[in-house]
Amino acid sequence: MRKILVTGAAGFIGSNFVRMMLDDASCDDKIISLDSLTYAGNLANLDGYHDHDRHTFVKGDICDEAFIDQLMAEVDIVVNFAAESHVDRSIHSSSDFIRTNIGGTQVLADAAKKHNITRFVQVSTDEVYGSLGKTGLFSEATSIKPNSPYSASKASADLLLLAYFHTHSFPVVITRCSNNYGPYQFPEKLIPLFVTNLLEDKKVPVYGDGMQIRDWLHVDDHCSAIRTVMDNGIEGEVYNVGGNNEQPNIEITKMILKHLGKDDTYIEHVTDRLGHDRRYAIDASKMKEKLGWEPQVNFDQGLPATIDWYINNSSWWSAIKSGEYMNYYEKQYGTQTS
Ligand code: NAD
Ligand code: TYD
C-alpha cells in the first residue's frame, strides 16, 4: 500500500484528484491530504471523503520545515498541487507566490530528498512557456519565458526541481497543463466567475477585446494525466498536458451566456490584465505517445455539465462569494461590474 501526500488537496484540482483516487475501488493507496486552507482552500471540497478509510486530512503549510519533515517520514510519493494560483492576484502582490510556489516547493523537495521518497510529482502549468503568436504549440522543448509573477514563480519551482534531479537524482516528474475547468473551481477564475455572476444576474468582466486564447481541459482529464505520470512517467522528464481545445475568451463567454439564456448585454469589456498573455496552446503528443494518455471529456459536453454543476451547487459558491471575496472583487474590478 503506497502512502501518497497530496498537497493543496482542498483546492480545485487537488480535491478532484483526491476524490478520483478514493473513488477508485481497485486502488489501495492511502491518501494524506495536506492544505493550509488559504482563501482558495475549502474543506467542503472534500465533503463526503473526510471519513474514508484510505484518507487523512492534515492542515499545514508546505513552507513549515519542521512540520513537513515530520510528515514526509510517513510518505512514499508526493503530488504537489499547493500553490498560489491566480494570475490577477500575483499582479496585485507577488510575495505569497514566491513564498509558497518557490519556497514551499523547496521545503517539500528537501524533506522528500531526506526521506528518500520514491516519486515527486510537480503540478506545473503551460504558463511557464509565456505567450504564443497566432500559430505554433508549446512542446516540452519550448523555452521557459514566463510573463506574470505567478508563472515566474511556477517556472522557478520547475527549474529548481530539475536541478535537484540533475544534482541529486531527485525522483521528480513535472506536468505542465493548460487551463482547467470543472466542479469546485474557485469563482475568481474565468468560467466559475462568469457562470456565478450570471446566476446572480450580474455582468461578466471580459478583459480587453476577449480574443485571448486558452486551451481548455476538463479537470477529470488533468487528474487522470497526473495519475498516469505519477505511475509511469520517467524521472527528470516534463510532460505537457492539454485538451487540444483552443477557445477565445469571448467564445467561452458566449457559450455560457447561451446555456444560461442570457444575451450579450451582460458582457462588459473591462480594462485588460497587465501583461496579458495572448495565446496558450499545448502539444500533448508526448503524453499520448509515451504514456498512452489522451483527454476523454469533450468540451461541448464538459462545459454545459460544468455550468449545470454550478447551478446545482449554489450553496457551495455563494458561501465563498461573500465577505473577503467581495473585498477582492472590489479591488480587482472596482465598480466596473455589478
Ligand atoms: P487552487 O488555488 O484552487 O488550490 C491551491 C490550494 O493550495 C488551495 O487549497 C490552498 O489552500 C493551498 N495552498 C496554498 N498555499 C499553501 C501552502 N503554503 N501550504 C499548503 N497549502 C497551500 O489552485 P488549483 O487551480 O487547484 O491549482 C492547483 C495546481 O495546479 C497549482 O499548482 C497550479 O499552479 C496548477 N495548475 C492549475 C491550472 C488551472 O487551470 N487551475 C492549470 C495548470 C496548472
Ligand atoms: P483565468 O481563469 O484567470 O486563467 P489564466 O489567467 O491562468 O489563463 O483567465 C482565463 C482567461 O480569461 C485569461 O485570458 C484572462 C481572462 N479573464 C477575463 O477576461 N476576465 C476575468 O474576469 C478573468 C478572471 C479572466
CATH class of the domain at 3-181 and 217-241, named Alpha Beta
DSSP strand content: 15-25%
Order of helices and strands: EHEEHEHHEHEEHEEEHEEHEHHHH
Strands, total number: 13
What is the CATH superfamily label of the domain at 3-181 and 217-241? NAD(P)-binding Rossmann-like Domain
Ions, cofactors and other ligands present here are:
nicotinamide-adenine-dinucleotide, thymidine-5'-diphosphate
- Span between N and C termini? 51 Å
CATH second-level architecture of the domain at 3-181 and 217-241: 3-Layer(aba) Sandwich
- What spatial order of strands do you see in the largest sheet? 3-2-1-4-5-6-11
Radius of gyration, CA atoms, in whole angstroms: 19 Å
- As for the CATH topology of the domain at 3-181 and 217-241, it is Rossmann fold
Chain oligomer state: single chain
Q: Which geometry do the CA atoms define?
A: globular
Structural class: alpha/beta
> How is the biggest beta sheet arranged?
7 strands, parallel
**Low-confidence runs of at least 5 consecutive residues:** none
Question: How much helix, percentage-wise, in residues?
Answer: 40-55%
Number of helices: 12
Kindly state the mean pLDDT as a whole number? Answer: 97
What do these coordinates show?
The protein is an alpha/beta fold and 338 residues long. It has a domain at 3-181 and 217-241: Rossmann fold. Helix content is 41%, strand content 16%. It is built from twelve helices and 13 strands. The chain has helices spanning 12-23, 65-72, 87-92, 95-114, 149-168, 190-199, 219-232, 249-259, 285-291, 299-312, 314-320, 324-333; strands at 3-7, 30-35, 55-59, 77-80, 119-125, 172-177, 180-181, 204-207, 213-215, 217-218, 238-241, 246-248, 267-270. It has a seven-stranded parallel sheet, sandwiched between helices. α1 (12-23) links the parallel β1 and β2 (30-35). The termini are far apart. It binds nicotinamide-adenine-dinucleotide (NAD) and thymidine-5'-diphosphate. The site of thymidine-5'-diphosphate has 12 residues, from α6 and β8.
